[in-house]
From TrEMBL:
UniProt cross-references to Pfam families, sorted A to Z: UvrD-helicase, UvrD_C
Gene3D superfamilies on file: 1.10.10.160, P-loop containing nucleotide triphosphate hydrolases
Record's catalysed reaction(s): Couples ATP hydrolysis with the unwinding of duplex DNA by translocating in the 3'-5' direction; ATP + H2O = ADP + phosphate + H(+)
Residues engaged in binding ATP: 27-34
Annotated coiled-coil segments of the chain: 575-606
Record family assignment: Belongs to the helicase family. UvrD subfamily.
PROSITE patterns reported in the protein's UniProt record: UVRD_HELICASE_ATP_BIND
Record-annotated UvrD-like helicase ATP-binding domain positions: 6-314
PANTHER family on file: UVRD / RECB / PCRA DNA HELICASE FAMILY MEMBER (PTHR11070)
Superkingdom to which the source organism belongs: Bacteria
Protein name: DNA 3'-5' helicase
Species in which this protein is naturally found: Mesobacillus jeotgali
Entry's Gene Ontology molecular function annotations: helicase activity; hydrolase activity
CDD domains per UniProt: DEXQc_UvrD, SF1_C_UvrD
């Protein structure tokens, strides 16, 4: 492990060698949280004689899982040895638990059960929402709002303090306000919610289906029975790791605590400042509760490590990001200031997209930047994203700009429903057989099955397991050589040398439908801290909510203006280059800054 410890800093090494059963690692962005848990796993494998199957890592999403796998591989390369401990998402672990529950006839589901999105229960019976929320004529909206409320109340956030596992627990005479983004708030009475829940329970029973939250609820119930299922699932591992702990819900916390046995160790890693899923049930207080619970439960076996040195970004980028988080403790681990971030004012999203396309072209063609080093981040809009559409349009106007296929999400609904059909037709067949029997080899189905096989799936039953992991967020794998366009949520845990963030203002970022301004700030914090060397923040100043662009100007940034519709309207004879009117003084500042930076870098080389 010598090489590894010469790479890790003191706090990271402390977390790796800590032999306490219950460990919380709190780590700001870029401080090596993923690096540290990957190193701790390799340490257990190499120095403690632990086998890969003794370890179980739970990640919050599939994207986070791949980050961890990549980090384990990278560190294994440094060390010259490695291992591949199992990494599951919460949902796939819950699914496995239920599979054991079915085997031991302890589950309320039967063999061959399926998982659907909550809104899809309506496909089984239109009566599901009949007579509910009669004041709203848009019935799809009613279905979405009720599905949302049903999920939130079982997750235990926002609507009620504790996760509710049964409709009988819903308090009478309550009215819940459900934020439906561009549709505003929808009012749902407890009577409506009870009726919806009861009807879903009937469908679940008859059709042998559940939804994602249903997986967690049922798995927790099975573990609490303390019988065969609990024994079977908890005897397979010793060391449990949970990544992105700040994004777990109260229901996931309950699932985890039911899973944990006295012979297990548990390491959780997270950062409250990167909580960006509260709309979806995340509860960052789980981080504090972990400390309170385990430091009281077994004080001699509890440890806490805080990582604060950010190795990813330059000082200037960290300084800008820290403006958005009051108690951010991240400090630069890198001595160089780097280039000042660019704050670019435009009048519209379309102009922002033009600016990005022009800059990206310049970076690639004139500055030799590799397209794979560039990432464009936008604030997700629930259904439609003008930012992404505009950027894609503008990039497509320039030839030879490779855009990652990741930007085009696979039509997951159709792909996955076809895979589910295949599963039903070829029940229990080995997957290599299934591939050879398939007539229809397009639309990524074969690729999907092969990917599942690479992850250890053997037959169609395992395929469902894999579907559970990916169904919520199936995307084509990234190509390293292309420009990446992602939502901030999807970019969590990733890093890129050059990052563009749009669009700060115009009710896009902070998003007008999102009442939680602190969550919007955390989202921007996550976006800004994805950048390693160069950062471009694009938007509009002066806005009725808090203006994020104005706030950026309080940091050490280069302030540019990309004008304007006027130029566009008189564009005959105006060259594309003339449209980029950078404020002269800031342009000079940029050159000065570059020269200073080069000088500093030369000096640093001397030491
Ligand atoms: N001790 C170290 N010395 C030098 N570089 C390091 C060290 N630890 C981590 N790094 C580098 O810092 C970057 C960030 O590390 P990592 O991705 O593990 O951070 P993270 O805390 O998981 O980030 P985030 O929370 O933003 O996802 C990576 O490029 C990693 O290789």
């Amino acid at each position: 492990m010598g090489d590894l410890f010469s790479y890790l800093n003191e706090e990271q090494a402390q977390a790796v060698i800590s032999n306490k059963k219950y460990l919380q690692i709190t780590a700001g962005p870029g401080t090596g949280k993923t690096t540290t848990i990957a190193a701790k796993m390799l340490f257990l494998l190499s120095d403690k004689g632990v086998s890969t199957d003794d370890i179980l890592a739970i990640s919050f999403s599939r994207a986070a899982k791949y980050q961890l796998i990549k980090k384990i591989d990278d560190l294994s390369d440094i060390l010259g040895y490695g291992g591949k401990p199992p990494i599951l998402t919460f949902h796939s672990l819950a699914y496995r638990t239920i599979k054991f529950g079915i085997h031991y006839e302890e589950s309320r589901y039967r063999s061959g059960f399926n998982i659907i999105h909550t809104e899809e229960f309506l496909n089984f019976s239109q009566d599901l929402i009949k007579g509910l929320c009669p004041q709203y004529t848009d019935r799809d909206l009613v279905n979405s709002a009720l599905s949302n409320a049903y999920n939130l109340i079982r997750q235990g956030n926002k609507l009620e303090e504790q996760p509710l596992n049964d409709w009988k627990c819903i308090p009478k005479d309550r009215t819940y306000h459900i934020n439906m983004f561009q549709h505003g708030r929808i009012l749902i009475t407890s009577n409506d919610l009870v009726a919806f829940w009861k009807r879903i329970s009937v469908i679940e029973k008859i059709k042998n289906v559940t939804d994602y939250q249903g997986l967690i609820t049922e798995a927790t119930r099975l573990l609490k029975l303390k019988s065969h299922t609990l024994h079977k699932i908890t005897s397979t591992f010793q060391h449990l790791f949970v990544d992105e702990y700040q994004d777990t819900s109260l229901a996931q916390e309950a699932f985890l605590y039911s899973l944990l046995q006295p012979h297990h160790s548990l390491t959780v890693v997270g950062d409250k400042n990167q909580t960006i899923y509260t709309f979806n049930g995340s509860n960052s207080k789980n981080m504090d509760r972990f400390i309170n619970h385990f430091s009281a439960y077994d004080p001699n076996n509890f440890d806490f490590v805080n990582l604060v040195k950010n190795y990813r970004s330059t000082k200037n980028i960290i300084q800008l990001a820290n403006h958005f988080i009051e108690d951010s403790s991240i400090k630069p681990g890198n001595p160089l200031n780097g280039l000042a971030p660019h704050v670019v004012e435009t009048h519209s999203i379309e102009l922002a997209a033009k600016f990005i396309a022009k800059k990206v072209k310049d970076l690639i063609e004139n500055e030799g930047v590799s397209p794979g080093d560039i990432c464009i981040l936008y604030r997700k809009n629930s259904e439609y994203s003008p930012q992404k559409t505009c950027v894609l349009e503008q990039l497509s106007l320039h030839e030879n700009l490779p855009v990652s296929s990741l930007s085009k999400k696979i039509n997951s609904e159709s792909l996955l429903s076809r895979i589910l059909k295949i599963k039903d037709i070829y029940e229990d067949e080995p997957l290599d057989e299934v591939i050879s029997l398939l007539n229809d080899k397009d639309d990524g189905i074969v690729d999907f099955i092969k990917e599942a096989m690479e992850q250890g799936a053997y037959d169609t039953d395992d395929l469902t397991d894999y579907i559970v992991e990916v169904q919520e967020n199936y995307q084509v794998e990234e190509e390293d050589s292309s420009i990446t366009i992602k939502t901030v949520h999807d970019a969590k845990g990733l890093e890129f040398p050059i990052v563009f963030v749009l669009y700060l203002g115009d009710r896009e970022f902070p998003h007008s439908s999102q009442p939680d301004i602190e969550e919007e700030k955390r989202l921007l914090y996550v976006a800004l801290t994805r950048a390693k060397d160069q950062l471009y923040v694009i938007g509009k100043r002066g806005y009725e909510f808090e203006s994020f662009l104005d706030k950026c100007l309080h940091s050490n940034v280069i302030h540019e203006r990309f004008h304007s519709e006027v130029n566009e309207e008189h564009s005959s004879g105006v060259s594309e280059d003339d449209k980029l009117l950078i404020d002269q003084t800031t342009k000079e500042l940029e050159i000065l800054e570059k020269e200073k930076q080069e000088e500093l870098e030369k000096l640093m080389e001397l030491f």
